[in-house]
Amino acid sequence: MPISKRVLNFIGDAKCDQIAHKTVFTAHDKAATLKIPEKTVGKTLVMKLDKELGLVLIPANRNLDKDKLKKLAGAKKVDFATERLFKNRIKGIKAGAVPPLGGPWKLPVFADRAFLKNAKIVINSGDNKWSIRMTPAAYKKLLGESLAVGNISKSRK
Fold this sequence. Notes:
By secondary structure, this protein is α+β, with helices and mostly antiparallel strands. It has helices at 5-11, 27-34, 66-73, 83-87, 136-143; strands spanning 17-20, 42-49, 52-59, 62-64, 78-80, 109-112, 121-124, 130-134, 147-150, 153-155.
């Protein structure tokens, strides 16, 4: 099965669709492949928040605002995690396809408010050939208290 059992078990009976597509490595390419607006495709970032890891979800058409993430996370220092740092913690997932689902790895998730205002969102599944489509309400329900929502993105320059 293309999507890992760990991710599928976490999703359980949440209302979502699994979408097969050609291999993509960026959220921008995923939007182009699926012929959908970039603002509806999530970009997952693995971040180092002080000394802990966290997942960040922003729309493909925007960049992360680290200062706003610092405030939302209550962290003094925020930086992108190296692959070496997170690959032992987030097992069974392909680099560049990390799903913004903190539960399977007991990680907090920080999502951009504007992204969650779309009617449907497309997020990583853990595999470069598969994605997950769901409503923001289903996503919020799935993540529960592990999700913090705020204005953490900014326009691309």
